[in-house]
Model the fold of this input.
Amino acid sequence: MAKIRVLTVDDSALMRQVLTSLLSRDPDIDVVGSAPDPYVAREKIKALNPDVLTLDVEMPKMDGLTFLEKLMRGHPMPVIMVSTLTEAGCETTLRALELGAVDFITKPKLDVQRGMEEVARELIDKVKAAAVANVRREASGVGHMMNPLAHPSPSSFPSGSAMLKTTDTIIAIGSSTGGTEAVREILMALPAHTPPILITQHMPPRFTKTWADRLNSLCRLSVKEAADGDSVLPGHALVAPGGYHMALDRNGARYMVRVNQDPPVNRHRPSVDVLFDSVARYAGRNSIGVILTGMGGDGAKGMLAMKQAGARTIAQDEATCVVFGMPKEAIKLGGVDKVLSLGEIAGAVMELVGRT
Done:
């Protein structure tokens, strides 16, 4: 099998060297070159034809976002953003994902040697996933994969007494690579009176709050990063905080979430399996599970547990996934009732809500 050809783009010579060193640990990856800015990168892309690009967010001459937008219009290819953990870095990275970047990694701290093995493994995994990802051309960042004919308009969603019967329904969503955009598109298609939604997206600390705030500004639902003890309420969506598991809990008739820093599950914290297992336990048949694009198998066992507990379950199809890893594993285990395109999921969820 041919090696995955990678080009690294970063204005720091030391960072280019570090990324090259980390990626070179894997025999299936060949770092074919590096570039200090987008202008050099453009020429090297033409000359070297890499399979995957790692791209710094902040660079001189042309920033990473401008270059990414031009690249995705003229020469779409898998791009992984290399981001800082600053507030501005989080905002810019989320915009990069809207523009078509497959994924991102947080920039390694050059003065901290501990944890480099974990950074290397994460970077290698993401490059391998990006190499087989479905890349969008000329992504606009607003409903680029939604088919307006695939789901009803908000005015046609169940209302009145139908909705009053379903306030105990819990909608649980799990995603990873490509999931920030998939979740956004689903939430934007849902009405304000949607039953409560719990979301676990593989994402590091600080990014989840920025992402939740961004979703809140775009959606009719109220969206926030979850805090321990938050009530689970209709019209609200809670996002698992980066670095924390989020689980559903129940005290009498009241649903709430618990967040904790228990050990990672499937190498992830937050883990989709943790969320889905808790929803299976406490909501059972009064729940709907949705597993979206992402690499690996996190969430597959939890979705099976939900189905066995009586929940209705949906997986995103391969054609609209950026990476068809998590849905594929859930389907393989037999935990999925329906396999739908991204554009069909919001309508299907609301149809199921109306039946409960």
Summary: Residues 154-355 form a domain with the Rossmann fold fold (CATH 3.40.50.180). The chain has twelve helices and 14 strands.
